[in-house]
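haha ok so turns out i had the wrong file open the whole time. this is the CORRECT one, sorry everyone. sequence first:
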Amino acid sequence: MKRLYIAYGSNLNVRQMKTRCPNAKILGTAKLKGWELLFKGSESGSYLTIEKKENGIVPVAIWEIGETDEKTLDRYEGYPNFYYKKDIKLECDEICSGKQCVINAFAYIMHEERQIGVPSLFYLSTCFDGYDTFCFDKQILVDAYHKSKELYENDR
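then structure:
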């Protein structure tokens, strides 16, 4: 059974995804409207998540994945303890056809009680690689980094 998966962080990195989920296929790109990026996590590290925000926009890639790939992602994302899954309806620009279509896909969202944090440079670089691949506006990622860093420092 195939499912559609919304990637917004390190899983935008095609090389990483192909290693992790060899049967995954890129379906297209989209913009999550009404969401924002934040870095959150635990003592082991901080990673991207999305949270609701009026007028927010998060660029995403849509992957078609099979059951085995989804189980691999579940382990990688720490589902259900670190991230949970949420189905989201959105408009997608298909890569092969160039057509727009409305789809239902799922995203991993970090549990909201997780603390704001600052990511490692390696993780940030992996995310930037994905933004380059899909020609996304890197300023969105930079803004998420600065907002998370500021919130993190204010909490200390």
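The two ends are 46 Å apart (CA to CA).
again sry for the mixup
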